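Need tokens for this chain, all 385 residues.
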Amino acid sequence: MIKARKILSIALSAVVSVSALYAAPVQTVPITFVDCNGNPFTIDVPNDIAKIVNEQKGLINQKIKENGVTSAQAQDAAQKVKDAYDSGLAGLETTTPFTTVENGLNTFTENLNYVLPNSQSQQNVWAQAWIGKLIPGFHLGAGLNAGAAEMDVTPLKDAALALGIEEAGDVPDKLAMPTVTGDLRIGGFILPFDIGFNFCSVDSTKFGEDFESKIDPVTFDFYTIGADLRYALVQGGGFVPRWSIGVGGYYTKGNVSVANSTAKASLDFETTTIYASTQASVKFLCLIPFVGGRVMASRSTAGWNATANWSEILDDGPSLQQALEIGLLPESFGGQETVDFKDNIIPQVYAGIGLDLLIINITASASYDFKNSIPGAAVSVRLAW
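Here are the structure tokens for all 385 residues:
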């Protein structure tokens, strides 16, 4: 599959190169630098890299001085970069790699801002709307929970392909963001409430070869900690439903990356989510159907970085050596996005069924975020008294 993609890439590059002979020259932006002798000079920088080059202008001037580069040498290096763009950047499937990478990683960051709260909320879901008081009755439980929320990774794939990471083309467009969680819930004292705690740690390299090969060259790892409190408005019992309201919060920190031997895109993220919820459940013998809803507010920060060895990725790489050395074709660039609580309010409904077998408690649940059209699901097995 990768070999076929490489052949297709070569064919497309050939078509682009031929069509470039008849295409209009790449649009440029004039940017002024200072050469090794302290003389200012202006070069024309392709639109695709103009923003990043301008942001790194101080660093480029420093490299020009350190390498003793004259204005004539810098002009020649800049012209070679423009020539590479005019010829269609042979070796890539896009003629705007920097713009594609930036847009792709920023969009993927936005996707994470929506997916993570849905993934978090599938942790520590109990069928009973309230498990009862700790004394009398000694109500508590602990166990494992496995869940997932759907995530669109197409923007990440687009960014990877723009960096020449061709293997990313075989990754599915949508993946399940998994959770494997340990949780604990304790019944309240005197008042009808209970408290839950959970911890989740996920590393994609620990899910086995089948999963790794499915998402290769993408890897991710993250952890989540959370806690919640539920208060029973209706304590119920027998066939009388239980109804509770609650509040809770989660904190998640992690990394997603895609890489091969010549390029890498990496994204570090952290998300804090707070929510208010309501849930109703009723017990029929050993079965406990339940339904509920949440309103979540989430704050997320994500910073991404991309690196590329353009001298190996691009067919014109050898002629671009000086441009690469002084940074006129940046080999490292990044960005950051933050979404505040008020800008990421998510309504969610959830429902499921529990199975109470003496001290064994099994719960299956599903959720749906109507605002962002994100489904989620989870199943848990616990020891409960």
